[in-house]
Amino acid sequence: MSKKMQITLTVNGETQELLAEPRELLIYVLRERLNITGPHVGCETSHCGACTVTMDGKSVKSCTVFAAQANGAEITTIEGIGSPDSLHVLQNAFREHHGLQCGFCTPGMITRATKLLEDNPNPTEEDVRFGMAGNLCRCTGYQNIVKSVLAAATELSAAKEAAE
Amino acid sequence: MSYLTPTTLDAALGALSGRDTEAPVSVIAGGTDWFPAQGERAYNGTLLDVTRVEGMRGVSAVGTGWRIGGATTWSDILHADLPPAFDGLKLAAREVGSVQIQNAGTVAGNICNASPAADGVPPLLSLDAEVELTSTRGVRRLVLAEFITGVRKTARAADEIVTALYIPALSAGARGGFTKIGGRKYLVISVAMVGAVLTLSGGRIATARITVGSASPVALRMGDLENALVGADLAEALERVTPERLAALSPISDIRGSAEFRGEAVVEAIRRTLTQIMKGQAHG
Amino acid sequence: MSDILALAPRFGSNSGQSLTRRDGVAKVTGTATFAADNHPDGLLYAVYVPATIARGTVTHLDVAAAKAHPGVVEVITPENRPPLAGDPDSKPFMFAFRFEALQNNTVRYANQPIALVLAETFEAATEGARLLNPLYDAQQPRMGLDGDAPFTPESGGLGLPGTTVHGDIDAGHAASAQDIDVTYETPEQYHNAMETHAVVAQWNGDHVTLDIPSQAIVMQRGAFGYYFGIPPENVTIRSPYLGGGFGSKAIINGPQILAILAARMTGRPVKLMLSRDQMFGPSGHRGATRQRLRIGIDTDHRMTVLDHNSLATTSTFDTFVESAANASQGLYAAGALRSAHQGVRIDAGTPGPVRAPGEAPGSAALECAMDEMAYKAGIDPLEFRLKNYAETEPGTGKPYSSKALRDCYAQGAARFGWAGRPLAPRQMTDENGMLVGWGMGTALFAAPMFAAQARAVLRPDGTGLVETAASDMGQGAWTALAQIAADSLGLPMDRIEFRSGTSDLPDAGIAGGSAHTATAGGALHAAGTDAIRRLAELATGDPDSPLYGAGNAGVIARDGRLHARDDDTRSESFADIITRAGGAEVEGKGSASRTAEASAAHAMYSHGAVFAEVKVDPDLFQIRVTRLVGAFAAGRIINPKLTESQLMGGMIWGISFALHEEARFDQRTGRIMNADLAGYHIPVNADVSGLEVITVHEDDPHVNPLGIKGVGEIGITGTVGAIGNAIWHATGTRVRHFPIRIPDLLTGA
Questions:
Q1: Among C274, C640, C667, C679, which residue's beta carbon has the most beta carbons within 10 A?
Q2: Structural domain tally of chain B?
């Protein structure tokens, strides 16, 4: 039967050592074993993006990443981006501009958006729409999601300029 | 079930050699398709993750050509500094799933899946890509057209790993293009797609390599058309794209489009790809 | 006098403000707890085994293999399934559907549960489910709208009559100078909320606690009690957030019941999370429809008849016939009006309400048919609709409680730039040679009310507490209802505590029918008003109060103080009044519903007008919606930001209906071939641009005391037809089914 493997994950800056079965997916390790429930499962086939996390600096869909694949990786989930007491600029923008309805897709959306803005700090609307196309919103709040990301981009750029 | 993460090619090949079929070994890289493809089957066997094998990842110039390592992701392709002949491959890379999937999914994985709708295959065929297969028995190279043998079928033996793709030397000035047609704007499984590489001389086509995907079980090079295009300027080239020169295709009717539509769409998609390249509109 | 007038000018009014969502922080930080986020100690995971045939019986399950898998604790099949107190095939209440909970080995549709596997880990339960390897005795399934002989149902949808006739239909046909007779088809569609169905069930003796997304919390408490043979108060439902519902989470389904049963059987908490493909089966869907529309007009372009017949798929074991033809009731002033429904029983799960049930497919067909009639008559489609504008409800003659549809048409058309649109198709192209088309449709959705209760408490410290078991599926109940409650108590938002989302609170009714804000909000308003009345009695009866003798009708609540209505300088804080009266909390109770008299007196609808621009590639026929302008009148708007978001969401559902969504059944096996988000297309971010919403001012003194109609569903209506009409206008090809795909345009080219 399944041989368990010792794996190490650094999740939101905290080192987690655990025994994982080969068949375990990263999303379920995060949610069911580490109680990190911000990333959600929406489809299990990597189409909806609700499970998006950042792995070694890149956006991935954790529902199709084996825990073993993530061995040694640094993982950032929505919980590592900001907290209720200290919101990330993107989190505040999504809140302020109603870039959410039911909120189920929101952690994945924001996690993806953090990378989008790191890679492209001054995106056009088109850049945002394509860069976020792997994250589905059924409610569907796409207009305000785009508005939120663009607003955050503006704010982040202004802050960066002010710092320089 | 077990999960192997060898760091050397020897270890990876050793894990594959001499395995029985009772406990098959699945070679995975990004792994993005493995779970969805399982369906209702019970899990069995071993997963061999090749992404940690030294030297498997990245794009490099080798001799007069290029080597794409077997664990190279689509994002790696997008970010690589490559000549304009690769523009079609880069355009295809953008169409592979979403950014998240491009970050995990690999070029080699795309060809090993051998889906008729695989985005990467038409541009790779137009680049004359060759596939390097390695096992404990040795190394062999197949041209991509021989590697993909049918719908979800390849020439890979159970003990082989796709260690790299090779793109042979490209004429200076070769340029690539890619067109995909689908109902939704993004995340689309395509109705039809075209990958092309042209070399131009004085505004006329000197050589043409045109591949059509999604309109036959395996993506196909359009040899008759390629020959006919030589010497044509843009206007002539567009006229020479006729259904008769695409007779090798056998488009099917399915949920995404009728055979008739696919046939017409292919003609138009080729014309657009030619226009894209000859007007210099392809940007990777 | 309506309470609106009393409320509107109040200082510090929360309603009408674009307040930021109160659940926003929780949702952007991942701290909002959805059902499957719960993880009680000792948890077992349940995975259900879906049938891979649509009709027949299960002949074998390899229970031994599943049980032998490490970590598997129990396998539940019809052989060992413990009894339920309530029969799954009974229909004890309204909104109760028959469901499959392993009552026998019959398969009635693909993806029906045929076993449940319980294990220590999700992975082991998943693997155990695969190892059951079911064998079947399969029969040829009946599929599609021609799968069986049609029957005439008693009702179309939930409780609506199967056939409604006003006037003399034959005479209406006979009187027409011109007519059309067209048939439209719409496919099976699935809700596909981003959050799949999930439940975490924990028993403690005879009491069960359920973390479960619910659109009808208190109603479902009673239903679960019924099926498990315990009193409703022994069921606690916690549903603070739903990851979307769209109707599916108003209905109890078999897998949920099985998970709760499994928790009782094993004595351990059980978590069940449906996979995406399992959302295509046991939790309802929109049935396919085939709608025939016959419209006749006289020489003045007035409709002599609107005759709308709909055939819809339902299941073999329960009846829910999509009430599509009812979309023709209530909108256009036709001389004679008929809406008739037929059903066809096929081997699929039972349909149920899906966002804008009946209205979405019905409006799609009606608005396209109206466009066809207008073109045949040679007049502008908007002019044609205005020509047949109903001043009173067609057929019944009832006055509308309010109807600002003319304003919707005017504002929407102006914003879109409708004037000057050529009548003939294929007249416009853009700078890139794309074919451009413009289409429009009228949006209509009834403004019903359910029944709700609420409680409001004023505390000695001057703060308020309000309670009702409302459901926030994303629409913003946590915010909009709190705004209403705060106003009713005369308190700012930060001085009220709003409790909601659990079954121990007063019944807020069902979160559906676009009626939740009106219904639950009405109850909250009544409860707050009651609390203020009691507080006013304390103050005005107390000689030590500056308000002494003002009479309880002589005071108003504002910003935590009661003021004399005729002398603003006479006032006292809530805290002072309560403290002097002995410090006991002041409690108010309220309820809301619509009386039969009110229903009889007025026709009540939200209205809107949607204008669409599409661009179609002349060679490849790729279709893009490039602009969509919707103008809606929906009574009083509590929170413009939330409202706009709801309307836009509905319009994007309209794009989805028009161009993307369709479940495709394999005719041989009865399985859905695209039961995932790869094959079942919904729009992505890149598909949506140029969307604008206008909310048109509308005062409604009759619809309910707060003047609120609904906005959750109307956005789909009108939009689908507008897009279909725009595609025709761009290409000249009239496609009479949805979704409209590239190949559909080829045949007409």
A1: C274
A2: 1
